[in-house]
Amino acid sequence: MTANFAKKNSLRSIPAMDLLLAMPEVEPYVNDQGREAVKKALGEAVERLRKRVLAGEDLSPSAESVFQIALPVLTERSLGSLRPVVNGTGVVIHTNLGRSCLAPGAIDAVRSAAGRYSTLEYDLSGGARGHRSDHVEWLIKEAAEAEGALVVNNNAGAVLLMLAGLCSGREVVVSRGELVEIGGSFRIPDIMAFSGAKLAEVGATNRTHLKDYRGAITENTAALLKVHPSNFRMEGFTASVSREELAGLAREKGLLFLEDLGSGALADLGSLGLRGEPTVARCLAEGVDLVSFSGDKMLGGPQIGVLAGKKKLVDQLENYPLLRALRVDKMTLAAFEATLRLYLSGKSGEIPTLAMLGQPGEALKKRALRLAARLKKILPPKSVSAVEADDAVGGGAFPAERLPGWAVAVAPPEGKSAGALLAELRNRPVPVIAGARGNMALIHVRTLLDGDDRLICDAFAAISGRE
Ligand SMILES: *Cc1c(COP(=O)(O)O)cnc(C)c1O
Questions:
Q1: How far apart are CA 21 and CA 8, in angstroms?
Q2: Considering only CA atoms, which residue is closest to atom 15 of ligand 1?
Q3: The ligand 1 atom nearest the CA atom of 305
């Protein structure tokens, strides 16, 4: 009886919603998120308290205790969901962190396209309707030395459009060594099935020969498809067929030769020390009829998918209904146009992805030493050091390439694990995403942007209670 009485009393002491909403601490959240959303969050907090009381916990819930329970949710929502972070991983094209950062010129172009009317589909000379991809097609044709070009909203869409529009109902021959899954559930066999084209697998996982392709061709074959194996790499007893040989076979049999290049590079990256991946122009010169690639990987632009190659094929796809569902947004087109112009005018060094990849070791070392010196003023100096560390290109490009870089290693205080330190770094208004080595957090400097050093110092100051 007394227990029940106490419970009832506790339940009764839970403050009414009006009272909760009138709390001065709650007001900023109401201004920011609206009364209804805050009411819901407080209501959920009340519900949790009620359950705890009913479960027999001895509490007398106050307005303050309800607010404290709702606070993590309210704070999280006020910070926004899609938030800027500091990329301290050293992975330049980090898909989970948004792949490429845009060049300043591309950001300006986005801003102006976003806030006003534009010539998106308007032909100024005739005052009539134009085509939205016209803005970038000529630039791609120039940069990739292609006869024709077309853009859709990502490379997965480009591959789908290419297969559906050119090969639906017919067979497409692919090497078993290239039937890979690329992060984020992109699998060639699945895309193929979805497009309506039929997959004809040839060769073995590690070795495929020209005679395998030849043997798979039937009267119902539409194309030979080459797929970049992305992050997947084979070593040892392997064989694959060159583009020239595949192009020759396709020509002989009257087939299309298509390629999903993944992370398409427009500029030769040999000067950055990255070798072994062809430019888009090179693929086309080696005989590929139509190649697809991403805009936000090695190219360093916004998320977009590009098809470049034979004009006849591009024209065919331009009239294919699926294209409408893969249409590119105006802000993306603006960013892409501005990015491509940087290639044409010889200013590709302004593209952050390429600039990060091209940073000399000496500059990285200097930057790591500078950041370490700043952190030593905040943390116990012995816990901080500049170290050599391997970075990565990311985005499925150059998986085998060692990209020597520099990082600042920070040892957590006695009794704290590296994992706990990494979690605290993530739990900041501007989260710092770092790597780990042994029991140390590792902040790679290659992927840091201007102003990030300051954010990193602020984060460590807050964590160590010296804010
Ligand atoms: C990244 C990649 C894709 C998917 O490209 P998105 O632009 O992410 O849609 C497809 N194929 C290959 C080989 C890739 O590397």
A1: 23
A2: 262
A3: 7
Give the whole-angstrom CA distance, residue 289 versus residue 172. Answer: 14
343 & 370 share domain: no
φ/ψ of residue 115, rounded to 5: -100, 0
Same-domain pairing of 91 and 107:
no
Q: DSSP readout, 205-268? A: SSB--HHHHHHH--TTEEEEEEE--TT----SS-B---HHHHHHHHHHHT-EEEEEEES-BSS-
Based on the structure, what is the number of domains in the chain?
A: 3
The CATH code of the domain that includes 222 is: 3.40.640.10
Domain that holds residue 317: 102-351
Out of 162, 226, 288, 294, give the residue to mutate to test ligand 1, the one with the largest number of ligand atoms within 8 Å of its CB: 294
Say yes or no: 26 and 91 in one domain: no
State which of 306, 326, 351 marks the end of a domain. 351
Q: How far is the CA of 389 from the centre of ligand 1 (A)?
A: 27
Q: What is the pLDDT along the chain (467 residues), one digit of tens a residue?
A: 567 787 888 888 888 999 999 999 999 999 999 999 999 999 999 999 999 988 988 887 889 999 999 999 999 888 888 999 999 999 999 999 999 999 999 999 999 999 999 999 998 888 777 788 889 999 999 999 999 999 999 999 999 999 999 999 999 999 999 988 877 678 899 999 999 999 999 999 889 999 999 999 999 999 999 999 877 777 788 888 999 999 999 999 999 999 999 998 999 888 887 887 899 999 999 999 999 999 999 999 999 999 999 999 999 999 999 999 999 999 999 999 999 999 999 999 999 999 999 999 999 999 999 999 999 999 999 999 999 999 999 887 777 777 999 999 999 999 999 999 999 999 999 999 999 999 999 999 999 999 999 999 999 999 998 65
pTM value? 0.91
Angle between helices 330-344 and 104-115 (to 10 degrees): 150
Same domain, 305 and 379: no
343 and 426 belong to one structural domain: no
CATH number at residue 412: 3.90.1150.180
Q: Is the CB of 301 under 6 A from ligand 1?
A: no
Q: Is 295 in the pocket of ligand 1 (CB under 6 A)?
A: no
Going by C-alpha positions, the residue among 124, 436, 378, 146 that lies closest to residue 279 is 146
One domain for residues 183 and 302: yes
- 191 and 227 part of one domain: yes
